[in-house]
Amino acid sequence: MSLTVQHDSDNDCLTLQLGERFDFSVHRDFHDACLGEGKPARSYVVDLGEVTGMDSSALGMLLLLREHAGADRAEIHIVNASDELRGTLRVAGFDKLFVLH
To answer: Which CATH number do you get for residue 37?
Structure first.
């Protein structure tokens, strides 16, 4: 699996660490991990440190996560993105919707 999930129950924070590709191939795992039937976590960290490629379905998954987590009230941090991925996220306007580190 190219997705590792860790839940910090003390802080109710779900960390999603993605593998080399963030694309449709991780859709099912991503959905099950953070959009499943449980209530949303208080906060999320999406770690893109190993990601070398991302497609439009990845952007869609991030938007679904944001809606599930409470839209404007969502606390979602995208961390360890390469300069190239950070540029893609900025061009798509995701720097206005998520906290980029």
So the answer is: 3.30.750.24
pLDDT at residue number 75:
94
Its domain, for residue 33, covers: 3-100
The tokens for 30 are 């991503």
pLDDT (average), residues 22-47:
88
pLDDT for the residue numbered 37:
66
DSSP secondary structure, the chain, as one string: --EEEEEETTTTEEEEEE-SEESGGGHHHHHHHHSSSSPPPSEEEEE-TT--EE-HHHHHHHHHHHHHTTGGG--EEEES--HHHHHHHHHTTGGGTSEE-
The domain tally of the chain equals 1
Specify whether the backbone of 17 is left (phi greater than 0), alpha (psi in -120 to 50) or beta. Answer: beta
